[in-house]
Amino acid sequence: MSIWEYANPVKFIRTTDKLMPWLSVAAIVCLVGGLIWGFFFTPDDYRQGSTVKIIYLHVPSALMAINAWLMMLLASLIWIVRRHHVSALAARAAAPVGATMTVIALATGAIWGQPMWGTWWAWDPRLTSFLILFLFYLGYMALWSAIENDDTAADLTSILCLVGSVFALLSRYAVNFWNQGLHQGASLSLDAEENVADVFWFPLLVCIAGFVLLFIALVFLRTQTEIRARRARALLARERST
Amino acid sequence: MIALLMRDLQLAVRAGGGFGLGLAFFLIVTVLVPFGVGPETGLLSRIAPGVLWIGALLACLLSLDRILALDWEDGSLDLLATAPLPMEGIVSVKALAHWITTGLPLVLAAPALGVLLSLPVEGYLWVVVSLAVGTPALSVIGTFGAALTVGLKRGGLLLSLLVLPLYVPTLIFGAEVARRGAEGLAVQTPLLMLAGISFGAVALLPFASAAVLRVNLR
Amino acid sequence: MMPDLGKYAGAVLSSYAVSIALIVILVASSVLRARKVRAELERIEERQRHGKR
User: What ipTM does the predicted assembly reach?
Assistant: First the structure.
């Protein structure tokens, strides 16, 4: 019994089918519970007023935007090294989810920034690197859908994911450097771990759990879809050739 | 390897090879900017380093799909793949040829275009230096993008979408060197970072490009 | 029931609306595509099983 058994598509579908109901229910409970807790039952922050409630969407989605890319990187590495198709398809399935999370993080950040910083957008290092991350997601998804041959697409996108990760990291540092070059010591970001009190912290944890579970459930579902779609294409191709 | 380099250079210089096209594009972008932002000398001289960098980057991007697409179409890429030369060598030579035909002319043309944008006197040296250090990275990264999209019918737009995010760090540090140089500030840190990115890209990316090209030739 | 959001009500509500809408779109598109592909695969498998007999 090893984890590589799940590289078998049939086994993967069977196992995830069993897990899916539990995962979805848990995700819904955590998300709805956490958001209701955060929205209705937390006090306003003395400085930020009620906008502090946006944190329950902003922080988890930002977290998942980065984690989704890390998961894609891991899945791409597994595909390159061990050539398990499920792994490549899981990376493909995660990309749109990660891109949506990036959009949520950017949108909620902009809406929060408008009353707090007085501007929708600032070329702050974090904001800028998230925008760049979004561009990477776009390129990755575009490359997947542009190539017809499945294995070629999987190979090319996984190499793009590796190279892109290096450059995304480089951009992160470059952007940090660049902004400090413009305004000295302008730190606009809100650092969750350090200045969030317990009242805000516990519902936030629930929301983070909800986003993680939602991400896993969606990736499972979308991976299943990709597996079925590929099988359908293979069957059709065989049908045409006979 | 030298024979391949000479061949690529000759093909590029010959009519229809696209040599000079990038240069013309660079010129046009630089001429268009004052039309867009207005002719005030003060504003132009402040944004000149950044405009020159973006113009160079776009001119570079324009010529990327020529690196491999022509050889792919007439099948010479398949021949090259069976040659004793390793694929890493082929893509390196291709990138070098692209740099000589596109990057180098851009570096040399930048001071002349700087005059159009009333670039401050101190800026000329650093614009040229930063472009000279940064454009090799643009060529190598571009070759990677070209290798990714070589098999596609209409890869041009996709190529830009893939390559432009990869250009971000190079652009940031390159433009920063040029800007600081133009304002008379110390340029050492961004220059070292830019050189680091260039050397790193030249050293490592050919392996990725070669891997991608092998997949595409399969 | 509704907490007092003060002067930032617009910001808070719109960010919740945008995020929830995006999540719902993502989930719905995933589920719909999953159903479609699953049905299509079953149809093809069914047809091939019949075709062979």
Answer: 0.84
